Every structure is written in structure tokens, then in C-alpha cells.
Amino acid sequence: MTTQDDQLVDPDILDRVKGWRDYVEAKLGFRNHWYPVLLSDEVEEGKPVTAKLCGENLLLNRIDGEVHCIRDRCLHRGVKFSKKPECHTKATITCWYHGYTYRWADGKLTDVIAAPETRIVDGTRGVRSYIVEEAKGLVFVFLGDRDGNIPPLIDDVPPNFLDEDNYVLSQRQTVQSNWRHGVENGFDKTHIYIHRESLLIQENDLVLPLGFGASGEQSHELVDGEDGPRGVIEIYGPHVIPAFEGKIEGETVLKVPSDVTGKNLVPSTISMWMPCALKVDPWPDPKTTQFEWYVPIDETTHMYFQNLGTRAETDEEKRDFKREYNNRWAFYALEEFNGPDIWAREAAEEGYADDHQWVDEALFEADENIIVFRRLISKRNRGVQRPSDLRA
Predict the structure, then answer these.
(1) What is the pTM of this model?
(2) CATH number of the domain at 33-150, please?
(3) What are phi and psi of 259, to 5 degrees?
(4) Which stretches are transmembrane (predicted)?
(5) Which of 26, 55, 134, 368 has a Cα-to-Cα distance from 35 of 20 to 30 A?
(6) How far is CA 12 from CA 25, 247, 310, 361, in A?
(7) Which CATH class is domain 153-380?
(8) Predicted confidence (pLDDT) per residue in 325-350, tens digit
């Protein structure tokens, strides 16, 4: 049973949001899921690097090409290995304080350099280790118990992300807001109001209204099978009503100029996938798809992964896309267009800081897809990350 000391949200608030209680409680995210934590090229051979995931401090290292991950905390006195990493052998890391030495592969305590005859090295002790997979230039860590029923990575990423011919280029940055504000900002079909003056609209000849209202027909599809990723797909086209004119008390105050309603009608779908990944297809161009992750770092920050994928099989096609990414999309799509998303999430963090906004929020018809995702992840998550998990 969860105790009050093991909760980060007032129990009274949780009792008032029963439809998505787990989601509101999960300030630190969910356990037993796969998350990207770094870009592959950030983990160099023999050079330990830190990351933080769902409040847990991690240390990663590449050994003979394979990435390993352990908790960044010595059993003895609780200090971080990363304060002064010591790797006297390729396969181990030694704590700089007293010489406790652990294997990268499984976290087992193998020796104490300062006391070689100690009885504490008995084959049963070790630091927590994590299963790692690399895919599409990202390092994924499974935050959970190694001896449990570990799902395949494909169950925790958006459909088609792992396709062999999906060539992906990525970047990441830290955002000063809880991970859920990233999820809901990305999946919010009326938040495009904040993008109405984006340079990307003219740069890529986009059709972009002020927002999308409800048409009266269900515009989302729930994906909740026993195998594969689980999520909610928001379908555009006839299922929503685009707003090209904004009115206040009957008076037109904003209007999308006819000369900026271009030929590229994108996206056709936006979808959110457990535990925290967005897919915008196609975007920002008919031949590309944008994937995003909003990875919990702690209660008030998340790691924002931005990924653009395109179908490319040959080296020449990959070089062409990389050139286009560097010269065009990295600025217009990922920096200039997504910039307002970042400060919108940070503003939401202030509004939800004491958690009462989860009860007070005034959601409307266009938020139905967000509500459906809240209910899905509250029902289907594999465990809420709690303060006690950080102490275990």
C-alpha cells in the first residue's frame, strides 16, 4: 500500500481526479518503461557520462561498443561515482572514496581496493543496473527491475519509429517543466494558436489555421492492444474544424492572411504514445515525420528530444536529408517553430506548481484527446515512480 510519505501529490487532490489518478500522481513519471536518455554519440568509448531519469541518477559508459548503465551512487557512503570517475579496468568502475568496485555489466560489487580481504564482497551486493538498447541514434534505458517481465523496446516507441528505412536525426535539451506539460502541449490541437506568426509557415508554404475546433464527430482513435505501442491518434482533415478567423464578441480581431495559407497541408495525424512520445505525421514537410519525447528528469524538469525522420535507404539519400536538416529544419522547425512550445510548458509549470490546477482546470471539447490519453496511461502504465524507488 502506498503511504502518504511516498506520494508527491496531496491525496485529497488525487481523490478528486479519479479518472486519471495515476497520471496526476506520476510527477516522476512511470516505472518499467523504456525512455531515451542520451544521444548515441554522447556516450563515447570508455568515457562515463551522467543522466537523470525519473529522479534516478544514472551513469553510462560504452565498453567495446556496447552501452551499460548503473545507478550513480556507491553502496558504501552514497557518494556519486561521477564526482571522480575511476575505471582501473575496462569492465569496472571504482568509487573514488574507499575503492568499492563494481562491474558495469550488472552492477555487482567485485572488490574493495582499500580492504581486499573484506567479507562484504560476497556476490550478493551491487548497485542497481539498467538494461540499455540503442536505436536510431538514441540511447534507451529501461527504468525498472531487470528480473521482471521486460517488454520489447518497440512497445514503448511510436509506430514506424524503428522501421529499418526510417532515417532519424535528433537533438535534445532540458526544459524547466514537468514532463506532462510537454505531453499535453505537443498533443494539444488548439495550441497552434501560439505558432501563428512562425517563420516556418511561409518557409515551407504551410496551411496553418489559428486552431482546430471539434466537428461533433470523434476525431481520435484509441490504440490499446495487448501487444505493441499504446496511444491515442488525433485524426485531422474532416474530423476537425480549422479556424482561420478569430473573433471576440462577434468582431474579427485576427485573420490568417490568404497569402500564407499555402499548399502543404500537414499534418494528417498527431498521436501520443506511452509513456511520453509524440508522433506528428507528416511534419514539417510531406516527406518527413517528427517524433518527440518528453522524458521525466525530476518533478520540475524534463528532457525534450526532437527527432525528424524520413524514408532513406541509400547513403546519398541520408546525406541529402542531413544537409536539409542542418540547413533548414534544425532552425525553422525545431528551434523557431518549437521555441514557443518550450516557454508555454514552462509557464504551465508555474500554473500547476501546487497541483490544484489539476482540479481547477477548465478543459473543453478540443481537449478530449488529452483526456483520453490521461485515462489510457492511468489504466495501462506499468507502475508509478515514487520517492521510495529513489531510495531502494
Answers:
(1) 0.95
(2) 2.102.10.10
(3) -80, 0
(4) none
(5) 368
(6) 11, 39, 46, 16
(7) alpha beta
(8) 999 999 999 999 999 999 999 999 99
